[in-house]
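Input.
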Amino acid sequence: MTQTGTDITTVVQYLDSQILSGALQPGGKVPTERALADLLGCSRHDVRRQLDALESQGRISREVGRGTFLTRDGTASPVSVTAPVTISPLDLIDARAAWEPNLMTLVAVAATDEDFTEIRRCLESGEAARQPGEFAEWDIAFHRALAMAAHNSVVSALHDLIESGRRRLAGSVLDDRPYTPANYAVCQAEHRTIAEAIFDRDVVRSREAMRDHLRTVRRQLLAGLP
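Output.
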């Protein structure tokens, strides 16, 4: 990844250079994924992965419908108007079950070869995961790759909201308990079934595969609750 005439090769280097020059202040808005991809000469998928890492480090915050912002001292952006929300794991999985299966009807039609590559990368990385936390990250990445493959701005915004909820739960007792080696082996097999249906552009099979997968996740969640 390169930017003509500079040594900037990563998102973090770009942001650091903007901060150093005074062009970007704490709370300032970060360029869009598309703009960063153009600036750095890389794919949006690559930019998204780097932004994910920066978000997990607390350097940026993502706000549905507003964009991505540089944080102040690792806390939420001062321009945020989003109130804290208590997330229920069961509410979250039920909300996902209500819309993700039907989302596959868009993905199976709209996905590009680049999307297929990213879906496959997330799938294979998840299969190679050996720790619950590692699998959880690739699980999130796999579902994000599917959502982004719809190439629909409303879907992207809705998925950001869902993913934000998942990340708020990350590391909690309720979130970690279902991630046993046996459970994520089952989920990975189901991820592959979903991916193969998408690669075949099979609308019906991909929708049903996602529905079955989310039923599995719900069962795993309920089995882990006290």
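Residues 106 and 150 are 5 Å apart (CA to CA).
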